[in-house]
Structures are given as structure tokens and as C-alpha cells.
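Task: fold both queries, return C-alpha cells.
Query 1:
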Amino acid sequence: MNRTRITLVLMAAALLLGLVSGAASQSKTVMGDMTVVKGTVEAVDQGSRTLTVKDSKGKFVTVDVPQGTERFSEVKVGDAITVRYYDSVTVRLKQPGEPDVDTATAAKTPVPGEKPAGTLSTQRTLTATIEAIDPKVPSVTFVGPNGWKYSRRVADKSVLGKIKVGDRVDFTWTTAVIVDVQPPK
């Protein structure tokens, strides 16, 4: 069985691409991909807040449903579902002395109807500091508020000459999830 997992609260997949461009131009937005899952609900786990969806090719996809999602309890086995997930990230090299940020906002727009539907979006901005640069891998490690730590391989080695340990950057993640559930046909 081919199984894929869609996580609806996703850190930016293209983080280092943004850093590479951000180091050269001070700020860069990396547009994410739209991921679309269409299929039939095969299992609903209320405790772990997951759905198992079988698409038209027989592939099983596990969808993590965030806390606060209204009407999750109304989704039933056999329902037809379409989940669209989108994310983007902006990475900006901070100027010396510029204050740190750590903010989060969220919005949800339910769509009235017989079955659950709507949009959930979030945006998080935080300041992180480059803690380590490993040119052998090559990779960069960042640290931020509340023990947040993130390491990532660098695709373009030339970026390593444009950044240094101690540089600060602002990461802004924007995600949106659009869900539409229909009764079984």
C-alpha cells in the first residue's frame, strides 16, 4: 500500500531556497506548491484528528486535521473530500539592531452547508539567528525563540559566502487549507 501523509501545519518546504535568495537581495518570497488531495474518506480517527483518504488511483493519504477545525466530528467514512493545501515562506536578512519578532495569526472562514467546508489560514513570523554553517554538508542551523532550532541542507553552496554565524533573519510562513466534504454518491 502506497501511503502519503499531508501535514496541514507545515514548516516551509523551500526554506533554504528563500535564504539563498534572501542573502543576496535582503528579502525573498518562495511560493509553495498547491497540494490537492481528492478522494473518499476511508477512516476517521477522532482521537488523533486524522482522516485516511483513498484517491481515484487507490493511493491512501493520511490528512492531519488541526485543533480548532470546526465540524471535524461530522466527517464520515464514505464522504467525498477535497483538501487543498498551500504554503509559502518569506526569508529576510535583518539589519543590525532591528528588533526581534515572534507573531502568529490565524483566520478561518467556514462555509455553511450540509457537510463541513471552509478555509483555515495561518501566518507566523519569527526571528532566528544563524547558529552554525557546515560547508562540508553544506547546511545551516538556525535558533529562535522558545528553543526552536532548525537545520537544513543548502542547495546552492555560494550562499555560504554571503552569510555568517550570528546573522539574524525573519521567517514568515503563510499556509492555507481549503476543505470541501460532500456526502457519498
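Query 1 returned. Query 2:
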Amino acid sequence: MSPNLATKIVGISVDNPLILASGILGMTPSTLRRAASAGAGSVVTKSVGLTARDGYANPTVHIIGSYGLINAVGLPNPGIDEFIREFQNEDFNFPVIYSIFGSSPQEYSEVTKKLLTLNPVAFELNLSCPHVKTVGSLIGEDPQMVYKVVREVKSSVDIPVFAKISPNVTDVLEIAESAAKGGADAIVAINTVKAMAIDVNAMMPILANKSGGLSGPAVKPIGLKIVYELYESVKVPIIGVGGVQYWKDAVEYLLAGAVAVQIGSAVMWKGLDVFGEILAGLRKYMAKKDFSSIEEIIGGAHK
């Protein structure tokens, strides 16, 4: 019997546990459909806020060989009203999770309430952008603010709310616990790690914003450790993200305790075919281990 990759993420039925992460694609309906067609079980949109943002000037992305990339894009988005106009007549036959950001609990709440017109399956709260302080790190580094944002959004909607947390804090577990106390239905761990690169010839930082967030294979050991620890301490489901390029990476996150795995920067190196490649490897692994469902893998490294 072929292994069954279908599962549920906080009650949301998906064909498989692979999710397109926010930030790489996802600002248009067509790119979301391409990711789903390539094999993503569900998708997360690029983060949208209350008002339009242009983002930072170029260069905004610096690729470091095959092990990482640093970006400081600056959360560019058209603003919630324009975003809704683009998505309002679209009909998706796969789960779409909407990523949002704001500068206050009230702003997060206002954006989520507007997005309800699109019938989302869940919201992902971007509490962790490392290079936009007013709508990212200032909120995500403060346990009380994290609690207030999640609680405010949860009081405004009746669908699952995921809290995407930052590794750039003194105590990741404290932040995750604050999100859980606020009512988060799942924790997404992790966002990018603060980083920078310097051009030795120009003798100045490469990115226009000087610093940004590191993603890619280099951050996988960090994300993996955090997911492992969260599984043992926080009583809500965990979605792992950070450096997933191959099927073994996805399995490691599942074994660490993640119920699903997001894939982001790997799309830049391998294209959308990465979803199909990981699914094929996952099926072979499950058949070899005689696993019939994804649930049999989750948390296996803790036994």
C-alpha cells in the first residue's frame, strides 16, 4: 500500500505536509496556483499590511553560494485594499493561508478582519521580520506584544491563527509560550536570522539596508533545534521552516515535532520542482520505514 501523505494542519485538510512559505512567491493568485500545481499541499501568501509599502531600494538580496541568502526586501506590498481587489474573484481548490503584518495589535486585527472576505483557511501572523523594526522585530522580540497581537486577532476571527516567530530573541520558548497563551493555534518556527555581507572592494555592506535576514540551508540546524525544543514545551502544533531543500530536511523537521514543513528559499535554487522532489523522497522513506501516515513520523526523534 502506498504511504498516505494527506494530513491535517490544525484541522485543515491538506494533500501533503509541504507548504509554500511566505516571502518567496505568493503576491499573485497565479504564483500560488503554480506552487500548488507543483506539489505544495498548501500555500502562504506574501505578507500584506494595512497600507502600501514600497520596500527597500536595491540590492535587496545577496546569495551566498549554495548554503544561504540574505534579504532585506522591506515587506513591499500593495496594501490590504488593493490586495483584496486582486484576490476577491479568485477561487482556489487548495488551502490558502494569508500572511499579515502590522505595527500594533489593532492594525493586525484590522487587516485580518478585512481579509475574511476572501474566505481564508488560516492567518499567519508575521511577528518576526528582522529588517523592518516597526512591524517586525520590535513586536516579535517583546513577549507581551506578541501575546497582545495574537489575542487581538483571535478575538476578531474564528479561523486558525498561526504565529511566525523569530530566532533573533533571548528566549524563543518565552515568545512561543506568549503566542500560545494569546490563543495561537500553531507556532511557525522560524523566520530568518539577522545577518549581513560586506563587499571588500567597495568596502561597504552589500545590501542597501546594510543588514537583512539569512535563510537557506545554513539556518536549518537552528530551526531544527528550536522546533525540537518547542515540541517538548509548548502545547500547540508547530510548523517547521528554515533551510528545507531535500526530503531528508523535511523528515528531520517532522521527526523533531513539526506537523508540517514550509519551503521558501529552496524555490530560488531549485525552482518549484522542489516540491515534487521532496514528496517523492518522502514517499520512499515512508515505504522503507513501513509508515502508512505522516502522523507516525511526527515527534519520532523524541521517543
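Both queries returned. Flag for query 2: The chain has ten helices and 16 strands.
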